[in-house]
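Re-running Putative glutamate receptor to confirm reproducibility after the cluster update. Everything else is unchanged from the original entry.
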Amino acid sequence: KSNIKTLGQLADSPLEVGLEPLPFNYVFLNLHSYSPSFQHSPLPDVRRFVRRKIESKKQPEKVWMSSAEGIPRVRDDPGFVFVLESSVSYPLIERLFLPHEICDLNEVLLRPDRSLYTQVHKNSTYRELMRLRVLHMMEAGIWLRNRRKWVKDKLNCDQSNYIFAVGMEYTAPLFLLLAFAFAICFLLLALEIFIKQ
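Result of re-run:
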């Protein structure tokens, strides 16, 4: 848990960062291996983030990892930050974290959460067509309906819901009690059958 709210604050923090290898992350951060035509991002926070968290590493390629590796590392390694597509990864987070641990997670948006983005080549002949189709989807409510159906917006956070792991030494008496109850039931059944005959 931290007070970090922006990408610039994350760049200035001493936290270690891991990134999910998504095309959006490569393009947004303007990394040379994916988009060699861009040398630097126009945003100073993004440039500072790339310089301090990725390029300063001895092995920058180790920063990239799958969400199956990065999410458990956030749980097990305090001070580790993982950049991922959150709405798709929410089910994995809910499976790996306890409910009260989910409340301690902090989310930092790389970009402001606006309505809809589409990646189109800058000089594409379909650029205007895509803009009109996106506008139509927004006005007709198709985008919002599909978003509500397919994308999870937030994690379920319940501060009072603490789950404790209970070992077999605490549950063994319950199983013994259940076995005892079965034995008594079978004895009563045998007694009833004997009396009836």
